[in-house]
Description:
With about 400 residues, the protein is mostly helical. It has helices spanning about 10-40, 40-70, 70-85, 95-125, 130-180, 195-205, 210-235, 240-265, 270-290, 300-325, 335-365, 365-385.
Amino acid sequence: MTGPLGVPAFRRLWIAGFVSEIGDWVLLVALPVYVYQRTGSAAATATTFVVALLPSLALSPLAGVLADRWDRRKLMLLVSLAQAVTLLPLLTGDLVLVNVVTAVQAGLAALFEPAKNALLPTLVPRDQVPAANGLVGLNANLARLVGASLGGLLLGYAGLSGVVLADVASFLLAAALLATLGTRDAVREAGKPAWRAWLDGLREIRGPLRPMVGVVALMATGQGLFVVLFVVFVTERLGGGAAEVGLLRGVQAVGGLLGGLLVGALARRLPPGRLLGVSLVGFAVVAAVGWNGPRVTTALAFYLAVFVVVGVPGVIAGAGMMSVLQLHASDEVRGRVMATFVSLFDGGQALGMVLAGALTPVVGLSALLNVQAALYLTAGVLALAALDLRRPRVTVRARGSSPDA
Length: 405
């Protein structure tokens, strides 16, 4: 086996991520549908998502510091176990507990993601980082294909309890796989106070990474609009229910699979910044076609095709974004850089969700969906115009871990 999957440690991380993300997608699709079915309110659905983002915004700075100071592999294992346990209160079905558990899950995820993203480039050679991120994107879309479809089906046929138990099982299995990674990632010395260490990570964003602040903020706001409005779009414009929401959200993964397979080849021809910009422009064009489609047809087959196609640039954009960030941050502060951009992305998503809930009754669903496409288009143009990222200014190297671990 060649490429990133030829590295045993990366391969195990990749499989663990796949299992965990299946559970994530089951919950991500099922919970908003559950809230919308119980309340009939787009604002209540938006509130659930905003509640999920607030802990991440608060904890991301600390998460980045922990990812740079602690054993990243052990941190991911402990977080996965905690995620499994804290899902159990959802078995009551209480709407208040839905928001509480969602917030706790978001806080734990805020600890997990910077550690994972900081660990990845230490497991593979630098020239394989874009391909590794493409495989992570392919992995995520396989999980979306399975998990999103299961989310709608489980909610429809087994209720919220079935959704929760499936998610718990996925976290436990992911934890078992993460345990096989070992704990050889070096523990960093504490040194400075946490707040000062976090500021060191912010300083890393100066220079080549500065344009990424605008790109990520625009992407995130568009994503926030999408997360809330997608459910409303499918139910109101297409006349669908839980199964249709899950199916249409899940089929994006079919295109994502193709996108993940293409990333390695495209990354050999395009620098990460250009890869990001081109894919965002493509995403915006396809999204605009889909949102305006009901003017012509509401046939499910048409939207299945649209959401398959939109998955291709979606996963390529994700791989481009992650590669830009990973290749331009030194290992000593990479966790903090990743956490800072996670916080920025979550803040942009929260803004988009609030706007979706507040403005849908005022300006209408169609107008906001077109704004979402325009935000991605603007992000793509900015990436193409402002990112000069052909030569990473730092060398990515393993610290305390071996590629064949």
